[in-house]
Amino acid sequence: MSHQAMNGFGGKVLTLENMNPNVRKVEYAVRGAIVQRAVQIEKELKEGVKKPFTEVIKANIGDAHAMGQKPITFFRQVRHLLSAF
């Protein structure tokens, strides 16, 4: 069966063979080179090294609350109220 018949769209199908090789090489590295550099910069800041910033914000894991975003409690409360009905 052809890719067109299988996907129902009749267009091109993304496969590992036709995917950009750089996309295949992507890694999810929670402790990768960027995080290691961030830790190094934090250490330098603690040692008094002058930088154009005073802190490192770790945004590598998508934790918005760790970056200072307030919890979205109002929306959660409304959703909870609506789900009660």
Automatic annotation (TrEMBL):
InterPro entries membership: ALAT1/2-like, PyrdxlP-dep_Trfase_small
Protein origin, superkingdom: Eukaryota
Subunit structure as annotated in this protein's UniProt entry: Homodimer.
Keyword set, alphabetical order: Aminotransferase, Pyridoxal phosphate, Transferase
An MF annotation (GO) of this entry: transaminase activity
Cofactor(s) needed: pyridoxal 5'-phosphate
Name of this protein: Alanine aminotransferase 1-like
Coiled coil: none
Gene from which the chain derives: LOC104957853
